[in-house]
Specification:
Layout lengths: L2 H8 L25 E5 L2 E4 L4 E3 L1 E5 L5 E3 L5 E4 L5 E3 L4 E4 L3 E9 L2 E9 L6 E3 L8 E4 L7 E4 L9 E6 L4 E12 L6 E8 L3 E8 L11 E8 L4 E6 L9 E10 L5 E11 L9 E5 L5 E4 L3 E3 L9 E5 L2 E4 L8 E4 L5 E3 L4 E4 L3 E9 L2 E11 L17 E5 L17 E10 L2 E15 L12 E7 L5 E8 L13 E8 L7 E6 L11 E9 L5 E10 L1
Parallel strand pairs: 2-10, 23-31
Antiparallel strand pairs: 1-4, 3-8, 4-5, 6-9, 7-8, 9-10, 11-21, 12-15, 13-14, 14-21, 15-20, 16-19, 16-21, 17-18, 17-20, 22-25, 24-29, 25-26, 27-30, 28-29, 30-31, 32-40, 33-34, 34-39, 34-40, 35-38, 35-40, 36-37, 36-39
């Protein structure tokens, strides 16, 4: 590697003082009369997760030396900073400074280990920084190369081939989370083989779904000449465990071309170059959750979270919720967590207030409702002589063979007693068969079919009545009749009454009612409770 390139790589490596002791070769039985032992390296730089083997050397009084392969005891002063194995392999754990000691009989030697962030700032200067790799976004087509022909500084740049169709994009990721809180901006240089607009560039998106500290800018103008771009870090102190150090995405336009990136790095810029945020917003939409459940606060793609700067003039979009501080006016109802979620702790509605640093970022609402009914629907008041009941508390119920026939598509079924009333619960409902074949119902003198439902998530509920005809068996080609009606419903977590005129069931006979089929929308994705199931005049 050329000297200037070697220096650029060195600029990417953080200096950590770590001494790693390792036994490999030499005397198997050291001469304890020898004058001293030494450890190498005596200082070492490690980033979290990086390892280094230590070597212990025995120095004789006559000036001879030999590497010690056994009998050495290694200890670390701060295992929370760096650990050392029995063989002298040291591993960086977390930021800090510690000491590693090697002991051989009555001899000892120490080394200092300093664990620092992976980066002193650079991500890609003349090559990927140590431990940095590329992770593609889902569905992307990627061809990234280290280009020795084009570069802004030093000897190379990162070339991205943009396909004619589809898109290219992904994240440059560190091997482990890094503390980037000492920096206030990500800067990079870019150009293209033809003038284009770069769709997105940013940081904090690891291409695996973690976007809690995402920030990006859209529609950056690229020309055929190198230009620098500055992406402010919204709240630097929050970016203390970041592995997703840079990302980009660009869609094809019918003709392939190239984009180059260079000198991608984290920096601490003076206030004359980088001003403070001037406005921030969270893209609040009403949140509805069940009691005891959690919901994600708006974060990342499509969140509507933004922060604006006047120096430079730009707006970061799709901001991760982790940059914001969220408080609740009623924590006993809705309690926001540090992980970007809110938990429902009590029934009612709470207001969540977001701030970014000292900037107000808006107010959202969280409504916490029960995951199942806590009360029964109104009891029917019709005379018993005008009702044929399958499931009520008020009237005698005609026997039902099963409320969940084996041929149905139901995630789970259970019978529940709520507020003293029997209710049938269907979760992940595709369709359920309710059979009373052995106890057919003659509903020919009735005028309506009634059912009360409670659902947290359905948008429609289907009712299908099936008459087996005079032969009393399922024989569609002989004398069976059936008809299905779709009823729009509200996913509102309150009881809804469905009363369907039997005249709406076109072509139906009602003398030998033997089956009721219920269907949910969305299919196999909703939950419903039903009760007060009856025919009536």
């Amino acid at each position: 590697m050329a000297t200037h390139r070697f220096r650029s790589v060195l600029a990417l490596v953080v200096t950590v003082t770590v001494a790693l002791l390792t036994g490999c070769g030499g005397k198997s039985t050291p001469d304890t009369a020898s004058s001293f032992i030494s450890i190498a390296p005596i200082t070492q730089t490690l980033y979290p997760g990086q390892t280094q083997q230590l070597v212990v050397t025995l120095h004789g009084q006559d000036g001879s030396t030999s590497v010690v392969s056994s009998g050495v005891t290694f200890t670390a002063s701060a295992n929370g900073v760096a650990t050392v194995s029995a063989s002298g392999l040291m591993t960086g754990v977390a930021l800090g400074t510690g000491t590693v000691s090697a002991t051989l009989g009555d001899k000892s030697a120490d080394a200092v280990v300093k664990v620092t962030p992976l980066f002193p700032g650079p991500v890609f200067i003349d090559d990927y920084a140590p431990g940095v790799s590329f992770a593609p976004f889902g569905g992307s087509t990627n061809n990234l190369t280290v280009d020795t022909q084009e570069h802004h500084s030093w000897a190379t740049s990162l070339k991205v081939a943009v396909p004619a169709s589809g898109y290219t994009g992904g994240a440059l990721k560190a091997a482990s989370p890094q503390n980037m809180s000492i920096y206030n901006a990500v800067t990079f240089w870019a150009k293209a083989s033809t003038p284009v607009t770069l769709a997105t560039a940013g940081f904090g998106d690891d291409a695996a779904g973690n976007v809690r500290f995402k920030a990006e800018v859209a529609n950056l103008p690229l020309t055929t000449e190198w230009a620098q771009f500055i992406l402010p870090i919204p709240v630097p102190s929050k970016l203390n465990e970041n592995a997703a150090v840079f990302h980009f995405a660009q869609g094809g336009s019918g003709t392939p071309y190239a984009i180059w990136f260079d000198d991608i790095q984290y920096e601490s810029l003076p206030t004359s170059v980088l001003g403070a945020p001037t406005a921030a917003a969270v893209g609040w939409t009403p949140i509805n959750i069940d009691l005891g459940r959690t919901a994600n606060l708006p974060s990342g793609n499509g969140s509507g979270n933004t922060v604006s700067f006047d120096l430079p003039t730009l707006t970061l979009t799709n901001l991760g919720i982790g940059y914001f501080d969220i408080t609740s006016d009623t924590p006993a109802i809705a309690l926001p967590g540090s992980d970007g979620t809110v938990k429902g702790l009590g029934f009612g509605t709470a207001k969540l207030t977001a701030t970014l640093g000292t900037l107000p970022a808006g107010v959202g609402t969280v409504t916490v409702a029960p995951a199942s009914p806590t009360s029964a629907p109104p009891a029917p008041t019709l005379p018993a002589s005008d009702v044929i009941s399958l499931l009520t508390k008020v009237y005698p119920n005609s026997p039902v063979d099963t409320w969940n026939a084996s041929w149905g598509v139901v995630g789970s079924y259970s019978e529940n007693i709520i507020a003293g009333q029997t209710m049938e619960k269907y979760s992940n409902l595709g369709y359920a068969g309710i059979e009373f074949v052995n106890h057919e119902v003659d509903a020919s003198q009735m005028n309506y079919f009634h059912v009360d439902i409670w659902t947290p998530d359905m948008t429609a509920f289907h009712v299908k009545l099936v008459d087996f005809g005079a032969d009393g068996i399922y024989s569609p080609a002989v004398d069976d009749t059936a008809f299905e009606i779709v009823v729009p419903v509200a996913a509102a977590k309150h009881w809804q009454s469905i009363d369907l005129p039997l005249s709406s069931f076109t072509g139906m006979n009602f003398q030998h009612q033997a089956q009721l089929v219920i269907v949910g929308e969305p299919y196999q994705a909703g939950t419903v409770f039903i009760t007060n199931v009856y025919y009536h005049k």
